[in-house]
Design a protein that fits this description.
Mean pLDDT: 89
Distance between the termini: 67 Å
Shape: globular
Structural class: alpha/beta
Order of helices and strands: HHHHHHHHEHEHEHEHEHEEEEEHEHHH
Helix content: 40-55%
Number of strands: 11
Radius of gyration: 28 Å
Number of helices: 17
Strand content: 5-15%
CATH topology of the largest domain: Rossmann fold
Length: 521
């Protein structure tokens, strides 16, 4: 996820450059051999996790030994600092010392079991199949040596942050290698950042009903840190139906030191809502696009379908209504959906969208550029929902209005197939939304042709309740080049005549040449 850092060469203060993640991944990928990325990612990410919790434990252990040797053996001292208890046989130093032994796979499995036994919140989370015969034990030893390069140095908190960044970066790279399947557990970092920067989750409850590997939560915590808040000011809740992905999420959050309530069941948020009574202040979600087998035929009557029963063949409006249902009275949500959700009229979707617009719960719509996602080439958009468009708290009354942002022309290609939004573009989108909401330091909002438009409900009604930003923002204004219109017209007309004469001369020359060759009439 930390891709925006990878091309810089500045030191991060821990003896590693900010391109360290990329170098490390390249080295780890060389060791993969013929192993499938989908299998290899669990081997690699499990080891990074082990390295992280061992380093965090050792750092705390050394600090406690210096303060009070007795306290160093008190588990509560570690728990109070959000550090997992790591028994001796599970510590990285033990594995590193035995990395070249043929039974290293067995030792890693034993380390994982020991950590799960000592830490209730990690039960069933860690991979424990390193001893399997098909796994190359020489490769395991080389991976341990490779990850040992991520040292604690003098500043443990920086090393911990580096391990967190490495874990995120590897997640993103594996998602890219897996293509469509990778999109099931990973939302591109730039998309997540747009949601986070627009919603600004400073404090309160943050929820994701289809949380994948936890990228929304990691970016939310980073946002709080970067803006001088305290990490304890937000409480994190999530649900995931894929067990393997849930495990990745639990490890991802643990590596970042993020405390969260992440639930798993294989029925999913629609059929077994684990957090039924939760009302969240912020919801950030990237549900699977246009999912047709969501079991909607078994949910024809449900309290969540306030705006209409979603079609059995497409879950888009089931997700939107599930998310709206879980919003607190002043809550806001950002949801990634396929573009079709903005204009579809089939199976009653148009009526549900109309009901949501008329109930004034749609706050903002953002059209995204193509090629942002690993999993699909389907163009996507962002829906922003608000329970209350007049909450006070320094924000203006925006009832009866919807902001449209057309960002389709944004983004830069990072490889042949994928695009990312730049930091400046993310800031432009977020600043526009903040100014429109009336935030004090965001400046005055104004419509920008071709980019943004604040539309009234009447204007949206005239467009048949279609929410495609391109319909509202119009064409971008052309830059004035300073040439008077009459002069420009005369110049262009003369140029056009000259080009026609040149074309006629070329046609005549071609015809003459053809006649000479015996092809003419």
């Amino acid at each position: 996820m930390a891709r925006s850092d990878t091309n810089k060469s500045k030191s991060n203060g821990n003896g590693a450059s900010l391109g360290f993640e990329a170098e490390l991944f390249k080295a780890a990928d060389k060791l993969r051999g013929n192993m499938e990325p989908s299998d290899y990612k669990h081997v690699v990410l499990g080891l990074i996790f082990l390295k992280y919790i061992s380093d965090a434990f050792e750092a705390r252990h050394q600090a406690l030994l210096a303060e009070d040797p007795q306290a160093a053996e008190d588990r509560d001292e570690y728990l109070a600092d959000n550090v997992f208890w790591v028994p001796k046989e599970a510590r990285w130093s033990h594995l590193q010392a035995n990395a070249k032994r043929p039974e290293i796979g067995l030792l890693i499995d034993e380390a994982m079991r020991a950590i799960e036994k000592e830490n209730e919140s990690l039960k069933g989370v860690l991979p424990k199949d390193y001893a399997r015969p098909a796994l190359n034990k020489v490769m395991l030893g080389e991976l341990i040596d490779l990850f040992s390069r991520i040292g604690l140095g003098d500043e443990a908190h920086r090393a911990k942050d580096l391990l967190g960044r490495v874990y995120e970066y590897f997640l993103g790279q594996f998602a890219g290698a897996e293509g469509k399947r990778g999109g099931e557990f990973y939302t591109p970092r730039s998309v997540v950042r747009v949601l986070v920067e627009m919603l600004e989750p400073y404090h309160g409850r943050v929820y994701d009903p289809c949380c994948g590997s936890g990228g929304m939560f990691v970016q939310s915590e980073k946002f709080v840190e970067e803006h001088g808040g305290r990490l304890g000011d937000i409480a994190i809740y999530g649900q995931e139906s894929n067990y393997t992905t849930w495990r990745l999420c639990k490890m991802n959050l643990a590596v970042r030191g993020i405390d969260a309530d992440i639930r798993w069941n294989n029925e999913g948020s629609f059929h077994k809502d684990e957090l039924r009574d939760l009302k969240a202040d912020y919801i950030l979600a990237n549900p699977p696009f246009n999912i047709s087998d969501w079991g909607g035929d078994r949910l024809r009557e449900d309290a969540r379908w306030k705006f209409g029963v979603p079609p059995v063949g497409n879950a888009n409006f089931a997700w939107l209504q599930h998310i709206h249902h879980h919003l607190a009275p002043n809550g806001t949500a950002g949801v990634v959906l396929a573009n079709g959700s903005m204009s579809s009229q089939q199976s009653g979707e148009g009526e549900i969208r109309k009901a949501m617009i008329e109930a004034d719960v749609v706050d903002c719509m953002v059209a995204l550029p193509g090629q942002l996602f690993y999993s699909t080439q389907i163009p996507a958009c962002l829906w922003f929902l608000a329970r209350n468009k007049n909450p006070g708290k320094g924000l203006r009354d925006r009832r009866g209005q919807v902001l449209f942002i057309d960002a389709r022309q944004m983004g830069v290609l990072v490889d042949r197939t994928r695009r990312e939004l730049t930091d400046a573009e993310i800031k432009k989108i977020a600043d526009t939304y903040h100014a429109w909401r009336g935030e004090k330091e965001a400046g005055a909002y104004q419509d920008v042709p071709g980019f943004c438009k604040s539309a009234t409900l009447d204007e949206i009604r005239k467009h048949g309740h279609v929410l495609t930003p391109g319909r509202y923002v119009g064409a971008a204004a052309q830059e004035d080049d300073g040439e008077p219109f009459e002069e420009k017209m005369a110049r262009l007309s003369a140029q056009w005549r000259q080009q026609r004469e040149e074309a006629a001369r070329l046609d005549a020359a071609i015809e003459a040449n053809l006649k000479e060759l015996g092809y003419g009439g």
